[in-house]
Predict the structure of protein-serine/threonine phosphatase.
Amino acid sequence: MNSIFKTDPGRVRILNEDDGGIFINGDGHRLAVVADGMGGHRAGDVASKMTIDFLQSAWAESNNITSAGQAEEWLRLNIYEVNKKLFIHSIENLECEGMGTTIIAAICTDQFVTLAHIGDSRCYLLNESGYKQLTEDHSLVYELVRTGQISKEDAENHPRKNVILRALGTEQNVEIDIITVIFEEGDFLLLCSDGLSNKVSENEMVEILSNNAELEVRAEEFIQLANQYGGEDNITLCIVEHSTSKESGK
């Protein structure tokens, strides 16, 4: 399995409130995570960093996750724990009041990928059946599209596109979307913050993922393209390739 993580502040913002990484446990399974600190809230960077630090530490201690059920339970328990820690931290530290973050996390094994998702960071899967977005945004605009009040085209430039309906750490309890999909040789998984998905089209994503360059080069192409289109937001992504070839990154 090959993998790469990259993050970039973009062309406009000085602070990068995104965080993430790809971590390997003792069983050789990968945990890929992207967290986008809540824009417009104080200490969004604190929320995303606390989330990644906790999950990285917990994953290092995990083992014997051999089934989708075990992976789903691990994500559920640890993300609930992160939510509790963030919420308490925001109450106890005035400068962090109201902080929160999105999260998309994927446990990647040779047979399956299990995803946990809160907010509008996304996960896509490229396989022999095509390219598919596996997550649904927890956003106001997505709800308007889902209920037929606006079209997908209208959503692209909606003035309230950045309004998130569900985030990690902003409330004492949080609902997590969790799914498991088959992961086979030749498949690609892309996790990203909205700084990428708001700028780069799905056709462009497929084109970049499908080229024969090293994963490092492909990840950099994503960053450069999002910045070329404005780079108003932080840009963060993980690529995981199910492959038997030499690893390109972690």
